[in-house]
Fold this sequence. Notes:
Layout (H helix, E strand, L loop, with lengths): L1 E5 L3 E4 L2 E2 L4 H11 L3 E5 H5 L9 E5 L12 E4 L2 H8 L4 E5 L1 H7 L5 E7 L8 E2 L8 E9 L9 E8 L3 H4 L1
Parallel strand pairs: 1-8, 4-5, 4-7, 5-6
Antiparallel strand pairs: 2-3, 2-9, 8-11, 10-11
Amino acid sequence: MIAAAAENDALGKDNDLLWHLPDDFKRFKKLTSGHKIIMGRKTYESFPKPLPNRTHIIITRDKNYTVAHKECIVVHSLDEAIDLVKEEIAFIIGGGEIYKQGEKRSDKIELTRVHGTFEDADTFFPEIDEEFWMLTKQEFHPTDEKHKLSFTYLTYIKKADALKSL
Length: 166
């Protein structure tokens, strides 16, 4: 899974991000380029066009939903999406409900923790339970002329004994 979430786990409001962090966008692009990205329909529809150099797997309950881009595949469940990635590296990119479902199926979380809270958010990342997840890397990014908020890149790996219990 890959996400940017505030300290209160806020992800967005009205199908949009709550902040603008250019360096986080660059990191997202670097990590996900060349891979499959799994998302809910609303997340897909928040993009002006499909993201380049990535296969989009879009989850929707709507059996009639179609997308007219060759780099997009429509499925109707997270299980169906996971079946399409087999042993490949793939990223679950949202939204909130897809993250909740995906946590059990994921082995790694690349989280950008945005230092701030957003009470008016309507979409949230699941709380990371450190009983199941181990923080393996962190890198702080201070505020600057392009970033009004500071943030920290966090990498979590699922603990081996957690694979059975989640």
